[in-house]
Amino acid sequence: MAPRLSIEIILTICKDAAQPTFSQREKYDIKNPYSTALSLCLVSRLVRRVILPDFLRTILLRRRHSVKKFANALLMQKAYAEKKSDLFFDYTSAVQRMWISDAFDYFVYAEARLENQDSPVFWHARYLFSNRDEARERNISVLLPVILAATELAVDRRHLRYIMHSVQDAWSSRTDLNVGGHSSFPGKTKNLTIIRQAQDVVSIYDHVITFVFLASIPHLTHLIDLAEDSHDFRSISCGLTLPETTEFFLRDDIWNSMKSLETLSVVYPHLPPLHDLESISYAAYATRGIDLHVERFTMSVTLFNQHRNSFPWGPPWFPVTDPGNKRIQSDGVFFEVTRDKTYFSQYFCSWDKAWACGLTDG
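The structure assignment produced for this chain is given below.
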């Protein structure tokens, strides 16, 4: 008779098998990276409780309906808690990284877009429509305790606007944040990553208000708009041009609230020179997508504030940073390129995989 495995070994196997497969070759819409974990949650309550912490560590909400489903899951946990059910699990204790963006719902191949969809009028109209989206606002308010518990938050500007105002309202009334009588803001966000998109045509920021959500965040990261900015940042990767990222950061309108900011970063695909046809097909990058390294440029806020209009980069012709290396250009300025590659497509919103795999982290 074959020996039976102990419950400890079985649980270890289930825990390993439940790890989300973010680095998978398949697209996330074809194969859900959480699919195995979701199936294992149905095995037993014990298995569910063992795998949930790792399952929930990174939450990837990349479609509009994903945000709604996650909000419903949190409401269900609230109901379980009120009934003192064994199925209750505190999501805020497990979630460490969170991505919130429905950009993928709007991005298609460039040749399939209608011409009027690429105009500022189209994006402005869509933005105004989203301003009146009460369902989205309700979902974000449900997510607030989990959002504030995550140390890494990646979000597009539209959802950031909802988060900033929802947190401001809740903090003003000290409700819905699970903060009790706390006198200090309970947010744990250490790095705010903004997913930049071409449709960011309207300011998200009210300069009269200092938003409490932003005040304690020490690190700000921008993921470039691949469709609009790939060409400029390719020149930086190749060492052909200096990184005029001061202007890139100054386009943002959240500075007045970020009282604790220490570093600024821009993350972009590490692209070889345009003439290097052997290493990359730019036609493939623009359409079906290819695997690329990820490059991160970081500068200290102290240095940035000293030279907002004219940054002293030193001599031209920056050396190229090779994959797997970190190059310190000067005190407070460095470049870093990942050892691993991930999938990018210029005309799709394809940052989600790089972020989920941790390749955009500092």
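Interim note for the steering committee: The beta strands are 58-61, 97-100, 152-156, 191-195, 219-223, 263-270, 290-300, 326-330, 333-344. Confidence is low (pLDDT under 50) at residues 108-130.
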